Amino acid sequence: MNPVFLAVLSIALVWMLLLMLRRGSEEDLLRDVEIGEGSEYMVRLPRRALLDQCLSAEDLDYVQLRNSPVLLRLFLHERRRLAIAWLRQTRREAHRLFRLHVRSVRFAHDLRPAAELKLLCAMGLFALVYAAMLAAVWWYGPLRTRRSLQSIQTLAGILARLVDRIVAAIVPGALPGMPAAAGVSR
Amino acid sequence: MNSAENHLRQDNQQHNTDYAVRDLQERTLANLDGDLSRVIYLSATRDYNTGAYRHEGLALRFGEEAAQAALAQCHQAAFRNLLDTGLPTLVEQLAAYIESTGADKERVLQSWRQLEAYRVLIPGACDPLSGDFFISNVRIALEILRVDSKPDPADSPASQPLP
Fold it and tell me: Domain total for chain A?
């Protein structure tokens, strides 16, 4: 692969990661106030089906059939905006759960270092996949091929598995019967 | 009231709601074509000031509480189906709905675009991202119908600036 392309991609990923970390701390402060209203352990992840719809190749084909640049611009802008919103909401929730976990294990007597290390690795991987996905979604528009959509879907699958692992480690037993508000939990 | 009585009351309420949901689905919603029409019908039974659903027939048969719960449940289910629907189906349902109103298509399209009345179709228990997704989808569907009925001069490749 072209080394210049690799360098640009790496810089973009690092920049996205920094941006994400900086934004995260600001948004999380605001989020905490809202979450206090319900149970802290309620998992509020956006539905995966929404992201799949945002990146639907069938919808893209359907819009492209019209040969209307105005319509195509509107479609790509909206779908990219929503996919980014989905990603940010997922990250916010993962960070919230992680902070909740850190708070609760701070004084725990039965701390298991191996499990904590695993969780930390999952969080690190999550941050990397998130940054890669954000960069890929950012480019959805100029690069709107079926192949690029497939790559984003693959990343979304990896991200979903990581989130499931994080949720299972922090809120045991939450995945089978997560408390769900309509359209909220996955 | 002791806990056993309370439990029994809750069970009865749940049964009532289930019957009300079935009744609503079989008698009314089954006659409506597509989830968009169902969502429009169900959101119209809601008081926009209080957010409470009202349906006299259902309330008479199953009680006010069960009727409200049934309407809310059906609204959420139909809305969820609509969210999971692809753009082609949404456009099809929107076109069919506009056709069913009997009003001038252009006028309805313009009014939906300007007034954005479709925002009231979102159930109260819906999360902001799903609501946003729905609004965005309807906006795109309206634009598709507009392009299909009357292509904008700005859309023609000749009017695009040269690269």
Answer: 1
Phi, psi of B17 (to 5 degrees): -65, -45
Residues A63-106: tens digit of each pLDDT = 999 999 999 999 999 999 999 999 999 999 999 988 988 888 88
Of residues A54, A70, A78, nearest to B152 (C-beta) = A70
Does some domain include residue A185? Answer: no
Question: Any CB–CB contact under 8 A between A46 and chain B?
Answer: yes
Strand partners, B53: B46
- pLDDT beyond 90 at B140: yes
- Residue type at B103? A
* Ranges of each domain in chain B: 3-151
CB contact under 8 Å between B87 and A58, yes or no, is yes
Nearest Cα of chain B lies from the Cα of A128 at a distance, in angstroms, of 23
**Which residues on chain B are in Cβ contact (under 8 Å) with A70?**
143, 147, 152, 154-155
**Boundaries of domain holding A124:** 16-35+46-170
Q: Is residue A140 in some structural domain?
A: yes
The length of chain A in residues reads 186
Residue A128: its H or E element: helix A113-138
What are B50-103's pLDDT values in tens digits?
A: 999 999 999 999 999 999 999 999 999 999 999 999 999 999 999 999 999 999
Q: Hey, of B39, B122, B136, B150, which one would you mutate to test binding to chain A, going by the most A CBs within 10 A of its CB? A: B136
* Contact indicator for B47, B99 with CB cutoff of 8 Å: no
A175 belongs to a structural domain: no
What pLDDT score does A110 carry? Answer: 76
Supply the ipTM of this predicted assembly: 0.82
Q: Is residue A127 part of a domain?
A: yes
